[in-house]
Amino acid sequence: MRYDAFMSLISLKFAIFLILLLLVYYKVPKGHQWKILLSGSLLFYVLSTPLYFPFIAISIVSTWALMKNPKKSHFILTILINLGLLIFFRYSVYIGIHDLIVPLGISFYTFMTIGYAHDCYGKKIQPCDNLLHYALFISYFPQITQGPIGTYQNMMEQLKSAHDFDMTNLKEGGYRVIKGLFKKMVIAGRLTYYVDTVFTNPQNENGLTLIIGVFFYAIELYADFSGYMDIACGVSQMFGIKLAENFIRPYFSRNIQEYWRRWHITLNEWFKEHLMMPAVTSGWNRKAAKILGKIFKKAKKGNLRTVCPLVLVWIITGIWHGAEDVYIGWGVYFAIIMLFSVCMMGPMKKVRAAIHWNDENPFIIIFQTLRTFFIVLMGEVMFRAHSMTDAFAIYKNIFTNTRINGATIAAALTPFGNGNQALASVLILFVLIGGLFVVELLKEKNADAFQKHRYLYAGAMIVFTILFGVLGQSNFMYQAF
Length: 481
Hints:
With 481 residues, the protein is an all-alpha fold.
């Protein structure tokens, strides 16, 4: 599977494109601003993957036309068209079609088209009566690459409304862009080489090196993905349009359900709204719950009706990321964890009452947070490994071959280089990760932390990005999905 080089949000080409578009957007009469946004979004897409523009056009036109009359047959045909295109491009490699370039953002705009169709069919929204308005909703350039996954209800009015030039929006949006660039180019960029080295031949690495590699990968993934979201949201704010937040400090979650409410929020909300809830209320699930009730006679009916939909959602989530065994294993892993968590809610509630459990006790908060982070890390092993064989090798070495001595510490430092180079790299990463932790912790306690002098912080981040940023990385990690 290949992805064509596109106008990356961290490229000079994109910066020039953005400045010119902003100038035109605020110069034209306000009633025409949405047309400038549409023209800019289509131009962005054409410049990115010109040969594949017809496929997003097919999705846009077919979905809009069919859902003007949202009857069942039209809804099913819309699903078949959009899923058919997605499956062909994303999974054709598994049937022997290689070197096929995947259209930019196809996974994310497919979610938006199907979500729109489902909402029209369920009469939650009125079908859009203007094809060009709908085209702007699907193709809006800040979110087309990898989200956040917008909803028609939240986006359409903003997109077609007039927006006055607002210096606050420009400054606040610019601040978020700088923060996103810092996360991507400095934190994620500095971690990439170590992670790639460790995961290339994990069978040959000792347990300590693998523990560090898995930890670094979790930070890299968060910095890269949330960094993109900061850039996308910041760019959109410059146009006066608010995108949905996709991350709320997920690594401070105290249980796995909370983690998935904080990580890739719009994707999880999409699955809940358009797959989980319809499955829970479906006839086949009620029948399955009755069968499970005969086996697990003491289980609550509500929990039993959750079992099959949860498994379905997580397996599909895994397959959406890719048809490789590691992604399916990752989906099954979190399905089991989520099911166990749901089933234990009742018994644990009784245990907490019996031992007078205090959720606000600092030691309990730390324990729950570290426990949740550990569960996530074990899942991320599969998400990053090249195969389940590699994943099992990582698990085995971590749990059976972890020693802390001079030799293992030296081996763990090897990917950083030798001598002073390794020590400098370790020091830089220690400062970066420690700084990120402190910022996130203070924001967790007070959402308004760092607001007062944020432009000074922005200046510091610009300096750090210039001095320590890794240049030449145009792609974001989630672009592959």
